[in-house]
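Form 7-S
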Amino acid sequence: AQLAEEELADVIRSTADLKRAQLAEDSAEDLATIPRVGLADLEAKVKEVPTDVSALSGGVPLLTHPLPCAGVVYADVLLDLQRLPVSELPLLSLYAALLTQAGTSELDATALQRRIGARTGGIDVGTKLEQPVGDSGAVGAPDGVVHKLVVRGKAVRDRLPDMLELVHSMLTDANLDAQPKAVELLKESKSRLEAAFLSSGNSFAGMRLSSRNTAVGYATELTSGVSYYEAIKEMLTTAQDDWPSLLARLERLRGTINARDGLMINLTSDPDAIDGAKPQLDAFVGRMPAAPAADA
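Output:
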C-alpha cells in the first residue's frame, strides 16, 4: 500500500518538526529539571566490607563477610600455589581450564556443565597473583607474592552442599587425561597470544621489563607474557607427541596444591546463611587431603 500525497506530506512535516526540536537549545527552565549530583550527595567515608576471620576444622582459615545477599551464598575456595616449582607456573592456565572443561570420572564435560548450571549460579576457576600489602598499608617487599588458585562459585543457601560437592569433584577428580581437550586449549591460547602481540605488543614489552623488578612481575611474565607463549609452544608439542609426560606434570600439580594446609575459604552471604554454612564447610575441608601427595 502507498501513502496518499497528504499523508506523505504529514510524514515529511513531522520529521522536519522533530529535527528542529532535537537541534533546539534547551531552556534554562528545562535544564533546571535535570537531577544533579553534587559533592554534598557523596559519602565522605569509604564503606568498609565487614570481615570476620575464624578457622574451620584442621585450622583452615575462614573469612566471612556478613552482608545482605538475598539468600545467595558466594564462596571462594583458595589453594596456595607458592609451593609449586617456578617451572610449573606456565602449566596453571591449562590446569585451571581442564578443571571446568574436561569433566570428572562420573560426569563428562557436558554433564558437568549442565549440573553446574542446574544447581548453582556458576563456578569459575582462575588464579590470583598479587604483591602483599606491607605494614599499615605500605607497599610490600618486592620479593613478596600471594599466589592462589581460586575456585569461585555462588548458589542459593539450600544448594550450597551441591556446590561444594561439585567444587570438591573438580579439584580432586577432574579428568586430566583429556589429550584432545588439552591440545585444543593450548592451540587457542597460542592463537590468542599471537593476536595480542600484534595489537598490544607494547604491553608485553612492559610486562617483560617489569619481570626484573618484583616477584609478582616475574610470575606474571611466566604465566601471561612472552615467556608464557614460549612455554605454550613447548607444552603443545609435548601434548601432541608425548602426552603421558604432560599428564604426569598435571597430576603432580594437582597433588601438590590439593592440601588442607594450603587451603583458605572466603564466604559472603546473609549472617544466618553464614552460620548455617559452617558445618557444610567443615565437611568439605575434612574431605580434602591433609597434606600434598607424597609423590608431588
